[in-house]
């Protein structure tokens, strides 16, 4: 299946591809490969796969969408850039999420600024599927200022494989290197970069204390501490802040950076391992977040979701 998001994040389209078409629509094609059929369009998306919105569809359309979601392969496309994802092929790697697309929209805005043409190299810390690195490489080439060098890192070997597969056919003359980081061993780079991007884990954990506000938010802390190794004086850092933990990390960043929000969106917190309350750890985690008022809570769930957050993609420049 393909999930196509429009440039302004106003709609999300679900498409059947190839052999999926016959299994979802009944239409038989002699040569199905290369064909697509639109199954449904969701307006004002809050998630890539909005289960609450799907459940409100007329039953026959709902079941068609549900059948489409059963297929293991997924392509996510935004602004002419796409990546293929499969949990079976890349275990533990998340498909591009609404955060990812909001991040890409912020990159698009950054690249619309005249001074962004100096960006010749970039570092992605925590690449996931590789969508954002692919987006940067393609879009910089389209505006006539291609990236010379990119370095991509993650702690998951399968994430690096996903990024390699996504980027290989579009990198052209861009030199791309990859590194597998080890947890707790720190970020290591040989040089600063013009652009650094990272979408860190942003849900603070129950063991947070006043003397360690970064508990569960370790990557924010490490990027901040190593920012002068990662960045030059003119470099840009793009990162994601969530209302869940913004009060813990944003003030420290403000001391070091000039900050500008490029994209902002209110979305559900849809991470079952945190919110489902199906384990002792989950119950403790949610209780901690609720006690410390870190979540926006819709107790009657009229919106279809109980827990909400505001995510922001922020441009950071050295003071």
TrEMBL record:
PROSITE patterns: N6_MTASE (PS00092). It comes from the Bacteria. GO terms for molecular function: N-methyltransferase activity; nucleic acid binding; S-adenosylmethionine-dependent methyltransferase activity. GO terms for biological process: methylation. CDD domains: AdoMet_MTases. This is Uncharacterized protein.
